[in-house]
Q: What sequence folds into this?
């Protein structure tokens, strides 16, 4: 009987809920228009609303507000007029009543329309309570979603604050305090890590060493050298003697039965000048 889709609209005090599918009209009667299940939002009474089509038998031209009443004992039918135009025509009233009669006829024995029109209307208090209950159910679900989002945001914020506190107060991830000197956090040397490494991948490992040159390389540190850091001066350049004995690797210099590596001149860039006594 009713369409699956919902029509969300208003006509005067009537809230249109959904459209009904009426029986096919007779060829001579024409199409009436669209029939909707509706509620009067002022009284909460169930209603039927017809939006006439261009081919409808008549179109209202006056504003009438009437109420129909029928009773079985004693039997009578009454037409009560609540509002009528000062120069109202009975032909207009008759045409409207006939139009509504045709609508009810074409609805036939539809169970959905019958159940809608025979339901007990809710008074103002009942209607307000019903709407408040629907709003409460919706807001309760919304509050649950909002609480979950806020809780996740709180956990994320606590995690960020925890990480910042660990960095500010000198804490490692294993919760080991860093030593503090004069209020400044100092990172201790990790016994598991070497202070300096030689990148073997960047050093050629040729089978033949080169002889120690007669003068320093362009990028080699020049004398004076720093003996207390393992440097020795040979031919004006600074070298570090290795434990390895010849044959030396191709990246090492061979001199008087030892293998040497030149000291980089860049190691002097940030070093303060110093003097030493031989």
A:
């Amino acid at each position: 009987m009713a369409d699956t889709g919902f029509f969300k609209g208003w006509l005067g005090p009537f809230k249109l809920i959904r459209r009904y599918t009426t029986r096919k009209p007779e060829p001579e009667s024409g199409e009436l228009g669209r029939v909707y299940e509706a509620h009067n939002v002022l009284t909460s009474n169930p209603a039927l609303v017809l939006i006439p089509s261009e081919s409808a038998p008549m179109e209202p031209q006056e504003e009438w507000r009437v109420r129909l009443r029928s009773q079985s004992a004693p039997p009578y039918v009454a037409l009560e007029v609540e509002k009528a135009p000062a120069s109202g025509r009975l032909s207009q009233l008759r045409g409207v009543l006939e139009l509504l009669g045709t609508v009810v006829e074409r609805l036939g024995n539809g169970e959905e329309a019958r159940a809608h029109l025979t339901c007990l209307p809710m008074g103002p208090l009942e209607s307000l309570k019903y709407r408040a209950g629907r709003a409460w159910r919706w807001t309760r679900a919304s509050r649950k979603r909002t609480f979950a989002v806020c809780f996740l945001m709180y956990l994320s914020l606590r995690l960020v604050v925890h990480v910042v506190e660990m960095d500010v107060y000198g804490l490692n991830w294993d919760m080991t305090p860093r030593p503090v000197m004069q209020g400044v956090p100092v990172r201790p040397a990790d016994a598991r890590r070497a202070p300096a490494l030689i990148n073997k991948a960047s050093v050629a490992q040729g089978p033949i060493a080169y002889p120690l040159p007669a003068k320093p390389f362009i990028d080699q540190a020049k004398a004076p050298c720093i003996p207390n850091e393992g440097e020795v001066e040979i031919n004006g350049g600074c070298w570090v003697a290795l434990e390895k004995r010849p044959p030396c690797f191709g990246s090492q210099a061979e001199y008087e039965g030892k293998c040497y590596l030149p000291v980089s001149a860049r190691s002097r860039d940030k070093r303060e000048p110093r003097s030493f006594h031989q």
In short: Helices lie at 90-107, 111-118, 124-168. Residues 124-168 form the longest helix (45 residues). The chain has three helices and 13 strands.
